[in-house]
# Entry
Amino acid sequence: MAEEKSKFFFDPYMMTSLSDLKKRLLANSQVREEYESIMNKPKILFIKDHELAKLPAYETAEAAGADVRSVEALSIPAGGRALVSTGLKCVIEPGWEIQVRPRSGLAFKQGVTVLNGPGTIDSDYAGILGVLLINHGETPFEVAEGDRIAQIVVAPVTQGEFGWADQGRETARGAGGFGSTGIS
# Structure
């Protein structure tokens, strides 16, 4: 009886570059459509509501967050907070959200962070993107027009289904919280 060949095999003479393989696969329209639906980035559009508004921008090629800029100059006193306008209105595809996060340099060097970080901008929000900054520093923090004040991260949304239960399940942690597992 002849030995049955596996349908998966490695033949060094048949090797091709990954880019050639990708080109051949994408020549098939069905495969191409599936690939594009997986690889396409969600379209996040903005309405310019202020003349100084600028589109968010990724500062490096692999950045997860895109920086957003202030369209106003203001001072945030030590211990104070302010809602800083970006002059942008978001148009977000359903199924996606924008998370507003602090910029690490502002937090480390100035003690300034996003108060409700990460803040969530839902796809059905139609107002202006404002960033709620708080100054934990010891001196006033000056925001100038055009300053990068926060970063935004685009994320998929998963909605849960909520309901009632008669009782919870037994776990090793139980109801312990707020440091109950220790620090070391």
